[in-house]
Amino acid sequence: MRTFTAIFMSLVLLSAAAAGQDLTATGKKIGFEEKFKRSETLAQSLSSAVAKAIDADSVKNVKSEDVAATVIDLKTMTYADVNGDQKIYPASVVKMFYLAAIHRWLEDGKIKLTPELERGLKDMIVDSSNDATHYILDVLTDTSSGGELPEKEFQEWSFKRNAVNRYFSSLGYENINVNQKTYCEDAYGREQQFRNFRGENRNMLTTNATARLLAEIARGEFVSKERSAKMLDLMARDPFAPTKDIDDQAHGFTGIALIDLGLKDAKLYSKAGWTSSTRHDAAYIKTADGVEVVIVVFTKNNAQVRTIIPEIAGAVLKDMLKK
Questions:
Q1: What's the whole-model pTM score?
Q2: Which residue in 25, 36, 159, 245 has its CB near the most CB atoms, within 10 A?
Q3: 104-140 pLDDT, tens per residue?
């Protein structure tokens, strides 16, 4: 005899399937270490860069566990990481996962492109708008914000809200949670009910997972090359040009390294973000000398320290340019 819970979950699954928002990858589930090979040369370079960046800011009490970084050389598909699997609150970097999911949903015909959706994607990535992110996540999961829900409705809502998580899990992405809207202040109603006051269900990313996604976008692998190019267009940053971006994504993060190294011909694509306690950047850099690299750096508990990300990125880039 089937239990009430089993029947209920079957109904939830049928409801979610009917909404047409669930996707799963076809083929083998591939983990990070199956996709990329570890490079001892990169590991030495990155470890040294992180240690020097932390030491330079030791007066501000930056600890080794407060910095995570991953580097992927796209020419050789090799990587190195420091605390690369540590789960960290991702700030605005999570928006890159929602961008990729939207293009996957579009490519598979689960949703349709509209002028409003295009506007939302642009504002979410180019201007890092939280309001646009709320709209995008609602489109992805067929959910909406509002007051608290009765238990049965809340369980259905929660299942649907986890659609993006299930998709990335089906690809082999591990140790991440991507089911929360981004806020300048706080969540209310069913959003807070979902996260609850203990912080459960809070967004979490690792630098390894983030670097993997950006590498797959850069190589045109996550979706079609045409859609990948559209994503990169939104993430394009020019650290040598003026900007009206209040988050200063072009000049305030990895872009500083390109300025310091005088790499005016380098192309930079990134999604950066910060909160009162975090400072993160996921950057794809392509230089005129042929270096093609993804550098992801997350810092926590030291948002006021603006130098760590560019110091790490600059040191790694300098070593790669010497080859």
A1: 0.91
A2: 36
A3: 999 999 999 999 999 999 999 999 999 999 999 999 9
